[in-house]
Amino acid sequence: MKLTLEIWRQAGPTAEGKFETVEVPDAVEQMSILELLDHVNNRYIEEGREPFAFASDCREGICGTCGLLVNGRPHGADQNKPACAQRLVSYNDGDVLKIEPMRSAAYPVIKDMVVDRSALDRVVQQGGYISVNAGTAPDADTLHLNHEVAELALDHAACIGCGACVAACPNGAAHLYTGSKLVHLSLLPLGKEERGLRARKMIDEMETNFGHCSLYGECADVCPAGIPLTAVSAINKERARAAFRGKDN
Questions:
Q1: EC no. (predicted)?
Q2: DSSP 8-state code for residue 93
Q3: How far apart are CA 88 and CA 121, in angstroms?
Q4: Are residues 142 and 237 in the same domain?
Q5: Overall number of domains in the chain
Q6: Theoretical Cys-Cys bridge with 66: which of 47, 56, 153, 210, CB 3.0 to 4.6 Å?
Q7: Are 34 and 70 contacting, i.e. CB atoms less than 8 angstroms apart?
Q8: 58 and 137 in a common domain
Q9: Do 71 and 56 contact (CB within 8 A), yes or no?
Q10: Phi-psi region of 57 (alpha: psi -120 to 50; beta: other; left: phi over 0)
Q11: Shared-domain flag, residues 148 and 132
C-alpha cells in the first residue's frame, strides 16, 4: 500500500511550522495511524534524521493521550475512534494523508504534533472532586443508586479527555467535555454538596479558555468515547440550577 504523507513539522512553540512530505511505499492496511508514524520514524532514525514528535501512551483507546488531525478530521476517518484505533484499511492505495496537530487556540503546539491540552485539565481541577468523610469505608449498600442512573453516569464518565471535541468544533468549544463531567458527577450520591459550586467554577474556567458551542454537533461525531450530544445541555442546566439555588449548593 503506497501512501503520501504530509506531516507537520514544528521545532517549538514559537517556531514557524510547515508540512514535510514523506513517501511510504510499504504501508500495511492493518497499521494504525500511530503505527504508520512509528514506521516513518524508524526509517528516519535509521537514516540519521530527526523523527516526528507525537503523543501516545496506552494505544488501547483508554488514555486519551494520542490526538492528531488526519485530513482535517480529529483522530482519522472513522467515526468515534481514537487515532490509535484508526486503521489504514479506511484509506486507499495512493491516498495523500495530511497529518497535523489538533488545531485549537486552546492547544498551543509544543513540538511537531504534540500540543499542550492542559486547558482541559484546568476545567476539571475547578470541580472534579467530591467531599467524603475520611475513615472506614462504608458498606456497599449504604448509598443507594439504581442501575439506570449508574449506567448513565458511567456513560458520561467514559470521556478520556483526548480533546477531539474541541478540535472538531469551529469555535473551539469544550462544552461536550465539560458537560460530560458535570453530568457524571451530578448523578452520583457523593459530591452533591459541591454541585452548584462545581458548575459555576468549571463553566467559568471553560469559558475563559474555550469558545462558544457551535450547536452543530461536530464534537459528538468524533468523540472516541461516544459521549452523547445531550451532555452539552448540562452546561446551561447546571448553570441555571446553581444560579437558582444560590451560592452554597
A1: 1.3.5.1
A2: T
A3: 31
A4: yes
A5: 2
A6: 56
A7: no
A8: no
A9: no
A10: alpha
A11: yes
